[in-house]
């Protein structure tokens, strides 16, 4: 019998309930997948809590998963029953044993990448490829500040920026997380709970400032992130873990001719060719060893509430996946 973890009301992790579902057959342009692993992201937490009201209730959360093609809908080409694929879908529904997805969002998963690792890093990895290759260019010698650098996206972003030759500064919340970054080759770490990151960045760069700030924290770091930018620097905000940013007076940017971006990954995947490009960049980086993924923490699909509780505790730097 097919099952899914569903939300009937917004709230804490306890509102995630495991129950039977009837998936049905794929329609035109769709694939039916038997899933093996599902990625767990902070976006799922925001959806479950009601911070994001983007999932109609009752509904099945989850944006990404890995599975095998079970059935193929009319008009679909390029896939066969048994193919191993990965997908990212803004239509939610990943927390399930089986599901229907548009063939347009399904990408074959190379044989050299494990299903658990892929589910742990697909959304995060596509986000990193977008940030590094589609926004302000990271060049050899650039100074880059990455907030929450030991998080799921942060770790991949640090590795990617270092590979491009940047001087990377990472803010972290504990000495253990700083050690993790140093093992990746990041020479500059800031324990933001112990020191003012603005003063620390100015000290590290000898008052020069940084060319780019990648900020997924939001409200708590926004003003300081603008302050540490050098002339013509770029602040790229791609999350709001600490809360929403207040309205910005555009003249604030004029003081140093700064650029402010707020990218959303799905806006960079509107064409199949874009999805294939960013996926290809991610897969090649993983296969070449340029990006290394820590083995994810795994929970059963029926225990998604435990996965959410651990993610919200911020007690782990590892990604979390659900085993179907």
UniProtKB/TrEMBL annotation:
CDD domains: QOR2. Keywords: NADP, Oxidoreductase. Residues 11-322 form the Enoyl reductase (ER) domain. GO terms for cellular component: cytosol. GO terms for molecular function: mRNA 3'-UTR AU-rich region binding; NADPH binding; quinone reductase (NADPH) activity. Its EC number is 1.6.5.5. The keyword DNA-binding does not apply. It catalyses: 2 a quinone + NADPH + H(+) = 2 a 1,4-benzosemiquinone + NADP(+). Belongs to the zinc-containing alcohol dehydrogenase family. Quinone oxidoreductase subfamily. PANTHER family: QUINONE OXIDOREDUCTASE PIG3-RELATED (PTHR48106), QUINONE OXIDOREDUCTASE-RELATED (PTHR48106:SF13). This is NADPH:quinone reductase. It comes from Pseudomonas reidholzensis. The gene is caa43.
